[in-house]
Amino acid sequence: MIKKQIILPTLLLATIFIGGMTGCTSSKSPDVSQGDNGTKVSNTSTTNSPASNTPERAEKREAVRKQVEAVLTPDQVKQLSAKLQQGEKMRKAVLSLNLTTEQKTKIQDIFKTAYPHRKGKSQDNS
User: Fold this and answer.
1) CA distance 63 to 65
2) With contact defined as beta carbons under 8 Å apart, do 64 and 90 qualify?
3) What is the pTM of this model?
4) Is 95:125 a contact under the CB 8 Å cutoff?
5) Confidence band of 34 (pLDDT split at 50, 70, 90)
6) pLDDT in tens, 45-75
7) Closest to 103 measured CA to CA, from 66, 64, 73, 65
8) Rounded-to-integer distance, Cα 50 and Cα 34, Å
9) d(CA 60, CA 74)
10) Max CA pair span of the chain
């Protein structure tokens, strides 16, 4: 009788605890989601996923950075490199530089050409 009083609540608490732990954990992967019945469903469309960090994307970012640097003065290039090394995003780093109107126009054209899907984003925040 005493064993049933100890074992039953212990099992119940263990079940709740384990169920709560598995229910609270989430997948770190951006391409996995929960289906209606709790099963994991994989979305295999990683080509258009902004989280995908493929070598092609890295090459494209590097090419855009070089095009932008060609428009900047040597001091601005140093400032940009420092900001990028600190983890700042390219657009924000470029906007924080003291750009001339001509530089802004050229850099806007570079971004529009490189990222045509971002038509709604405004480059001119000054």
Assistant:
1) 5
2) yes
3) 0.50
4) yes
5) low
6) 444 555 557 888 888 888 889 999 999 999 9
7) 73
8) 20
9) 22
10) 86
